[in-house]
Amino acid sequence: MPVSDDFDEYFTADFPLLVGFLCKLGFEIEAARDAATEAMLDACLRWEAVESPAAWVRRAGSRLAAERVARHETGDDRAGRADRSCPDRHVEDKLIALVESASQVVALLARLPERQRVVLAWSLDGFGTAEIAEQIDLGEADVRSALRDARARVGELHRERSGEDA
């Protein structure tokens, strides 16, 4: 089955961003990349039925990365490992640049409580409050509250860091 040009374009544009999103959630780069690859493959297979690809692959990738970590922690890491390489060098270069430029953001997000980290990661990827609430199954008020708290905490952490550098 040939992959549509629409999916090819989408994959090239969003794969590095998806890996970055999963890193922002706290997953190591290898787990994030593997989960992103698997989520994109699933999206490709369901492409005609996927209504919001960016949200769909982020939900799927988050679940897949968490499952991979859980399997690793329980010692049940027997899941078949397909070739996880990117289809072209441009995507790989973009991924490397994104991860390098986002390392400070990832480190900062890692210091947030899980709910704050999750909603802020979705927000940083361009999703609005209503979309975030729908995608992670929280009320909009809870998302707004978590975003407010996350931004306040990030501000505190930034001020602490700036004070340390001075």
UniProtKB/TrEMBL annotation:
One of its GO terms (biological process) is DNA-templated transcription initiation. Residues 104-153 form the RNA polymerase sigma factor 70 region 4 type domain. Keywords: DNA-binding, Sigma factor, Transcription, Transcription regulation. It holds the Pfam family Sigma70_r4_2. It comes from the Bacteria. GO terms for molecular function: DNA binding; sigma factor activity. Belongs to the sigma-70 factor family. ECF subfamily. This is RNA polymerase subunit sigma. The lineage of its organism: Bacteria, Bacillati, Actinomycetota, Actinomycetes, Pseudonocardiales.
